[in-house]
Specification:
- The protein is of the alpha/beta class and 474 residues long.
- The protein has 3 domains: 6-177, NAD(P)-binding Rossmann-like Domain (Rossmann fold, 3-Layer(aba) Sandwich), CATH 3.40.50.720; 185-433, N-(1-d-carboxylethyl)-l-norvaline Dehydrogenase, domain 2 (Orthogonal Bundle), CATH 1.10.1040; 444-471, Single alpha-helices involved in coiled-coils or other helix-helix interfaces (Up-down Bundle).
- The protein is built from 20 helices and 12 strands.
- The protein has helices spanning 13-24, 36-45, 59-65, 80-90, 107-119, 132-138, 148-161, 179-208, 213-223, 231-241, 251-254, 264-275, 280-293, 295-305, 316-348, 355-361, 371-383, 393-416, 421-433, 440-451, and strands at residues 6-9, 29-32, 53-56, 71-74, 98-101, 123-130, 141-145, 164-165, 168-169, 171-175, 455-457, 460-464.
- Strand 8 (164-165) and strand 9 (168-169) form a beta hairpin.
- Helix 8 (179-208) crosses helix 12 and helix 16 (355-361) runs antiparallel to helix 17.
- The protein is globular.
- Bound molecules: 6-phosphogluconic acid.
- 6-phosphogluconic acid (6PG) binds at residues 104, 130-132, 188, 191, 260-262, 264-265, 366-367.
Length: 474
């Protein structure tokens, strides 16, 4: 029987959809699931694609069905299940076979797995896949980390199944070992910031302007035709327009305001801190989810302090224009932070991450896909590894136009008591970034006063101490 081009373990929704996508693009795929019934059900539901699916009921059968070197995608729960699956596979694989983890793994686990498998003559790919269930089925964005040789083996299949932006595949090899999963983690960090900022603007519209969900849906829908055009804005409009079948009320009004998280946002922030790169908008977004989860405490605090948001008055069209631009400016700052973190990690882990390519493969298929990413891809392409997106000429003019609105919106929101943690962090980041003379001279003086840590002078080289006198550290 003709060998399969690739294998896949784990026929949950994401795994099944990826497998069907691969078969649909003309590739034979061998599939295995821990429970045989699920494999049977998958094959039964594969319809016309059935002929390209090779159901396997043991790992030995799976390995035998694939053309060597065998690429096998594992789509199981992140963490221990991945290690268990790899351990089980070891016995049936041969030299140069490629285990591909397509889940949302912590890139540090990926680096470990890469080195463990390389040591035993196998190969490992950490593959970030974005786009949810729909993306997996019809075209996700795919971020690959591993050896270039292993990428060459799977490139054809992965580019075929990926989303396309104006015909260009949204799948790329980004570097060795953990590069793909790191980039996916930062993708998710940006996703958190993007979602949080949208929610903050929704909050201002709902509480400060007293706008109902349907009307806010129209606003987002309108924005989606302009500079904010993106998947997240598009789905936000759809979400706000939907009614709850049970009550007939707008569905958004009956959803509890407690956000979940699986960890990738938090990992972005931890890694940003480890690298010493500020990612304040992402940090604020993660913290906002945590704060959202302590609902009981918030209800108690509302009783003590009052939780009301004051009405925001003024010309409605002008306000809406500001809100749109504020969201745009905040988004640029969040992306600037995300790319800066990737740039720091690229140096730290010797990945040589291709920023223009990352921007390109995020233009379609993934959750943060947007029109702006095309501008980013161009900007990175033109300026190479710009120190910061905020310094790329195209973004200088965008930011110059948009930051006054961000400032006005943050100020109005603060006055009204409408929390805007991600937008205000983005603004503070921008203001700090553009301040040639900041206020850390005072921090240095304080450090020297209590700890004799020394400071540099603006008028000379070397380390100096201040004239602090008695009471200061000696
Ligand atoms: C994607 C999504 C996907 C998933 C996140 C959600 O790119 O397709 O980011 O990976 O939806 O894991 O993460 P939280 O549960 O942490 O919000």
């Amino acid at each position: 029987m003709e060998k399969a081009e690739i294998g896949l373990i784990g026929l949950g929704t994401m795994g099944s959809n990826l497998a069907l996508n691969i078969a649909e693009k003309g590739h034979r795929i061998a599939v295995f699931n821990r429970t045989a019934a699920r494999t049977d059900a998958f094959v039964e539901n594969a319809g016309a694609l059935r002929d390209r699916v090779v159901p396997c009921y043991s790992l030995e059968e799976l390995a035998a069905a694939i053309r060597p070197p065998r690429p096998i995608i594992i789509m199981v729960l992140a963490g221990k299940p991945v290690d268990e699956q790899i351990a089980a596979l070891r016995g049936v694989l041969s030299a140069n076979d490629i285990v591909i983890d397509a889940g949302n793994a912590n890139f540090r686990d990926t680096m470990r797995r890469f080195s463990e498998l390389t040591d035993s003559g196998l190969t490992f790919i950490g593959m970030g896949v974005s786009g949810g269930e729909e993306g997996a089925r019809h075209g996700p964005s795919i971020m690959v980390g591993g050896t270039e040789e292993s990428w060459k083996r799977v490139e054809k299949v992965l580019t075929a199944i990926s989303a396309k932006f104006k015909g260009e595949p949204c799948a790329a090899w980004l570097g060795t070992d953990g590069a793909g999963h790191f980039v996916k983690t930062i993708h998710n960090g940006i996703e958190y910031a993007d979602m949080q900022m949208i929610a903050e603007i929704y909050g201002i519209l709902r509480d400060g302007l007293g706008t109902g969900p349907k009307e806010i849906a129209e606003v987002f829908s309108q924005w989606n035709t302009g500079r904010l055009n993106s998947y997240l804005i598009e789905i936000t409009a759809k979400v706000l327009a939907a009614d709850d079948p049970k009550t007939g009320k707008p569905v958004v009004d009956i959803i509890l305001d407690r956000a979940g998280q699986k960890g990738t946002g938090k990992w972005s922030v931890i890694e940003a801190q480890q690298l010493g790169i500020p990612a304040t908008a992402i940090e604020a977004a993660v913290a906002a989810r945590v704060l959202s989860s302590i609902k009981d405490e918030r209800l108690a605090a509302e009783k003590v302090y009052g939780g009301g948001v004051s009405k925001i008055s003024g010309d409605r069209d002008a306000l809406l224009g500001d809100l749109e631009l504020a969201l745009f400016a905040g988004k640029i700052a969040a992306y600037a932070q995300g790319f800066a973190v990737m740039s720091g990690a690229s140096k730290e882990f010797n990945w040589n991450l291709p920023m223009p390519v990352i921007a390109k493969i995020w233009r379609a298929g993934c959750i943060i896909r947007s029109q702006l990413l095309d501008t980013m891809a161009e900007a990175f392409g033109a300026s190479g590894a710009a120190t910061n997106l905020l310094m790329a000429p195209a973004f200088v003019s965008l930011m110059q136009e948009a930051h006054p609105s961000l400032r006005r919106v943050v100020a109005r929101a603060a006055e009204a008591g409408s929390p805007v943690p991600a937008l205000s962090s983005a603004l503070a980041y921008f203001d700090s970034y553009r301040q040639g003379r900041g206020t850390s001279n005072l921090i240095q003086a304080q450090r020297d006063f209590f700890g004799a840590h020394g400071f540099e002078r603006i008028d000379g080289q070397g380390a100096f101490h201040g004239p602090w006198g008695s009471g200061a550290a000696g």
